[in-house]
Amino acid sequence: MKRLATVALTALAPISWGSTYAVATELLPPDRPLFTGVMRALPAGLLLTALARTLPKGAWWWKSAVLGILNIGAFFPLLFLSAYRLPGGVAAVLGAVGPLFVVGLAALVLGERASLRTVLAAVVGAFGVSMVVLTAEAKLDLVGIVAGVISSASMGAGTVMTKRWGRPEGVGPLAMTGWQLTAGGLFIIPVAALVEGAPPALDGSAFLGYGYMMLINTGIAYWLWFRGIGQLTATSVTLLGPLSPLTAAVIGWAALGQALSPVQLGGMAIAFGATVAGQAARTTQPFSSPEKNDQNISMDLMDDEVRR
To answer: At what angle do helices 2-17 and 243-254 cross, to 10 degrees?
Structure first.
């Protein structure tokens, strides 16, 4: 029951990310994706770090920077480049193959051995997303494809390394999230200044949109995501990813008047079913030190009961 609650809370992160397109197109200045990336990450990171009242120490300065670049700083610009160079459907499909990167990296780095059911769930989930978002008019662009693949690989590597390094003793997911968002936002600033120039003028709608992006879409969403990585396997967390494009499609239909064809509805059912099946599938991994301690304590209690 506890695992189910953790999965459900973690799933709120990709569901929230599914609202990004609608908020960006309806409320934010056009053609400023990198500035939007900075506004999403940096204020949220500073706020969460202030709330946690904890700064990195020792090796965690560079570890937080690496994780922030993988999960935020490199991921956001590459994702936006892919979105600009490719039709939205193609970019979404490239994002949906992210779980396959995590399955492979988790096996190499974490020793998580994914079952055939897990691999099939990742493949079927990506196929279902493609049914929802791809159109016959979709055109391919090599730079966009490469950027999309690297962005998925970057987020996948960030997910695996977040699981691999864990957290410093006594540090919670709030501080870890704040450190990564701050590092990622700082990394994007020079890229945004070079590519997009000075920040745009902001009106009331933009402030509302950026406020939502900062607090809900990024601060709370990434806190839930990194919290989930700490409590679930990396593979289990990443298999929730297809919920993002599915949510975007539902919002497009409900709020933006976009039609959904029978094929798209079928794809949504397939992708959602694969996501649920992926959570039911299990991965095996070696015990970490805390898990070994828990196991030893449990065995000691059992032996004590037997002696009684």
So the answer is: 60
d(CA 176, CA 182): 10
Whole-structure pTM value: 0.83
DSSP for residue 74 = T
pLDDT above 50 for 179: yes
Q: Measure the CA–CA gap between 98 and 128, rounded to whole angstroms.
A: 14
Structure tokens at 205: 């709608």
Per-residue pLDDT, averaged over 27-32, amounts to: 87
Give the relative orientation of helices 88-96 and 116-133 as an angle to the nearest 10 degrees: 170
Q: What contacts 111, CB < 8 A, 6 or more positions away?
A: 285, 286
Write the pLDDT tens digit of every residue in 12-21.
999 998 888 7
Strand-pair partners of 113 = 284
Burial of 169 (0-12, 13-18, 19+ CB in 10 A): exposed
292 pLDDT higher than 50: no
Phi, then psi, of 178 in degrees rounded to 5: -60, -45
CA-to-CA distance for 137 and 246, rounded, in angstroms?
Answer: 20
Cα–Cα distance, 225 to 216 (Å, whole number): 12
3 state SS of 116: helix
Q: pLDDT tens digit string along 207-226?
A: 999 999 999 999 999 999 99
b/e sequence 231-256, b meaning 16+ C-beta within 10 Å: bbbbbbbbbbbbbbbbbbbbbbeeee
